[in-house]
């Protein structure tokens, strides 16, 4: 899969008292990019919950914070599928500053597919797995 990129602007509310992006906000940026990747495949998470009774939840995340992002930076959040399992997806993700291409953050994120009403693991539906595997 080619890297999927999603632009994110850093707003004042994203920063801490030192003027840099607060560490947990990087997780929000990563989440937005994964959501937009699913959307680019034609899947809306609210519809998956309502129509197919599944949700995707973070199972594990390893994050390396390399350089700080600051107020008003335009960032590129990258998503690549590392591995597709029967009930999980592992993503490699990056956050870079657009102006100088500095790598600010990198993460490996494991997402589990869960049955929405029981929150128990379940297989990724075939149509979703096919789209993801064709992109990989």
Q: What portion of the residues fall into strands of 2 or more residues? A: 35-45%
**What's the architecture in CATH terms?**
Roll
Round the mean pLDDT to the nearest integer and report it: 95
Q: CATH class, please?
A: Alpha Beta
Morphology call = elongated
Helix content: 25-40%
Number of strands: 5
Strand order of the largest sheet: 1-3-4-5-2
Helix/strand-derived category reads alpha+beta
Count of runs of 4 or more consecutive helical residues: 3
Low-confidence stretches: none
CATH superfamily: Hotdog Thioesterase
Count of individual domains: 1
Taking the alpha carbons of the first and last residues, their distance comes to 4 Å
Give me the CATH fold name: Thiol Ester Dehydrase, Chain A
Looking at this protein, list some descriptive labels.
136 residues; alpha+beta; Thiol Ester Dehydrase, Chain A; five-stranded antiparallel beta sheet; 3 helices
């Amino acid at each position: 899969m080619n890297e999927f990129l999603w632009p994110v602007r850093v707003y004042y509310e994203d920063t801490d008292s030192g003027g840099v992006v607060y560490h947990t906000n990087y997780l929000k940026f990563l989440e937005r990019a994964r959501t937009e990747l699913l959307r680019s495949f034609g899947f809306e998470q609210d519809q998956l919950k309502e129509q197919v009774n599944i949700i995707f939840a973070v199972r594990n995340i390893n994050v390396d914070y390399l350089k700080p992002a600051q107020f008003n930076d335009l960032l590129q959040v990258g998503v690549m599928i590392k591995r597709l399992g029967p009930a999980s997806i592992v993503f490699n993700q990056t956050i870079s500053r657009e102006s100088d291409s500095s790598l600010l953050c990198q993460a490996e994120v494991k997402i589990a597919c869960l049955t929405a009403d029981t929150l128990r693991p379940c297989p990724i539906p075939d149509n979703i797995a096919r789209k993801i595997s064709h992109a990989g």
